[in-house]
Amino acid sequence: MTKRSGITRRTIVGSGLGIAAGLVSRPSFAANTKVKVGAIMPSSGVLAFPGQACVRGIDLGVKFAREKFGLDIEIVHADTQSRPENGRIAAESLIRQGCTVLIGAWDSGATISALQACEAAKVPMVVHIASATQVTSQGFTQVFRYYPTSLTIVRQSLTELKSVLGTLKDPPSSAVVLHLNNTMGQSTAASIDQAWKEVDVPLKIAQYIAYDEKAKDLSVEVAKAKASGADALISVTRVNDAIMIARECIKQGWDPKMVFSPNSNGVSDKAYHDALGKYGDGPILSALWLNPKGAETDKIVKMFAADYPNDWFDANAGCAFEAVQIVADAVTRAASPESAAIHGALKKTDMKPILMYGDNTKFDETGQNIHCSMVMLQGLKGRPRVVAPKAIAEASLEYPLAPYSKR
């Protein structure tokens, strides 16, 4: 049976729980020991698009780990239903079911909530995506975050932006920041405010405009952005609101010269491009991404295409996939399915990313990956393309943003 999404009979969305089949392979440890891994994602609700992409990445990651590490892995999926408070509920449930290591939880609020349960039970958690600084600044001992902090992402992103601005003819002169008011959005806005000064970006920030992630209409916020007089838009979005912002720009006749996202996934999602068609091209995003020239990338992408022919292998799926490999590597080195042994092995992690672009994954004393490398993407011809760094670029940057009225 062909898989059409990451939510299958293995995931019961109502309860947030499901079980994937175990995998068996070569080493004697793996052949005799089952490792039970819990995966917490927002598989339903307003964050369902990225959440389901993460589930696909987890399931493919387990399939790949069977071959590479020879592990017998049982995955138990849990759904936060896009509610931050459900992170702890999901984590507690997974731990009661015998999961000795967790992966999750995409949303920063849900991740922090889940980590509270992990801390109490002494069960390690690999955070594949969640950028709020608080995830690794509150003293949690069980956290191992692959994803960068919002400040790291923003600082690297703005450094790249400054470099790009220096090459442009008639660059924008001012920018308005339109951002979510949730944990991730507020953390990113604060990071932008700090890093903008540190990097000395040659653009004036005209205004910060926050909005609720559950908003059904962003006409007022986009009108404020347009009225600010800024000719560049800095957006911090998820996919639903990214679509609404683009539609309001079209409706209100606002054509910024540049749309740049220093810490958000909205403009790189398949749902964004499916919803907007030709109007989805042009925004620039700085993000963790698949290494198009990685040694095993083609093989992994082909595996994904075979299992999910109607979906994209995006950063959500990619980071989730990478998290499974980090866990598999740690369990193999620990030679044990027990939480304490896995925790000890995770602290000593030093592995080259198997799929994602970047240097070796290593965790500092706070549990933060110290080697997080960003790429610059731009929506071109209906999907995101790598435009920097040059060594792995798939296309050249296009500027200015094509006016919506002329597409």
From TrEMBL:
Pfam families: Peripla_BP_6. Residues 34-376 form the Leucine-binding protein domain. The keyword Signal applies. One of its GO terms (biological process) is amino acid transport. SUPFAM superfamilies: Periplasmic binding protein-like I. Residues 1-30 form the signal peptide. Keywords: Amino-acid transport, Signal, Transport. Belongs to the leucine-binding protein family. This is ABC transporter substrate-binding protein.
